[in-house]
Every structure is written in C-alpha cells, then in structure tokens.
C-alpha cells in the first residue's frame, strides 16, 4: 500500500493489529464513524436550512467539515 490515508467504510474496519502495522508504515486510518459523518451532517444542514439543497452546497460544506475532523483526528493520534 502506498497511500498515506486509509478511510474505513461502514462496518468494514481494519483490525487493531492491521491499524498498528499501517501506522508503523506511516499510513493513518480514518475511522468509519468519521468518514460517514458527512451524510448525517448533510441531512441536518439541509433539514434546518443551514445550506441550500444543492449538490455543490452539500459537497462544499461536507468537504470543509470532514477536512477539519480528519485534521483533528490526525493531531490526536500523533
């Protein structure tokens, strides 16, 4: 694997041993609950009118928030 990040999918997480091995090779594992939080946030933002109900607004807001969350998770893991 040559990736710097491995993003887990729902119910498809790596084992603790695999995560340790990946980390020893410099690969950061982003947990599925972080990666999947975007869809849940989108629902609330749209429902309460925080964003326009367009793909551009949704992806823009999700991209910004997930980058913040991933950076936070990486900082905590260091």
Show the helix and strand layout.
Elements (H helix, E strand, L loop, with lengths): L4 E3 L8 H9 L3 E3 L1 H4 L1 H11 L7 H23 L1
Parallel strand pairs: 1-2
Helix pairs in contact: 3-4
Could you explain the architecture of this structure?
The protein is mainly alpha-helical. Helices cover 60% and strands 8% of the residues.
Q: List the secondary-structure elements in sequence, H or E.
A: EHEHHH
Q: Based on helices, strands and strand pairing, what is the structural class? A: mainly alpha
Number of strands: 2
Radius of gyration: 15 Å
If strands are numbered along the chain, what order do they take across the biggest sheet? 1-2
Q: How many distinct helices?
A: 4
Mean pLDDT: 86
The best one-word shape is: elongated
Largest sheet properties:
2 strands, parallel
In short:
The protein has helices at residues 16-24, 32-35, 37-47, 55-77, and strands spanning 5-7, 28-30. It has 78 residues and is mostly helical.
Features:
78 residues; mainly alpha; two-stranded parallel sheet; 4 helices; 2 strands; 60% helix; 8% strand; elongated
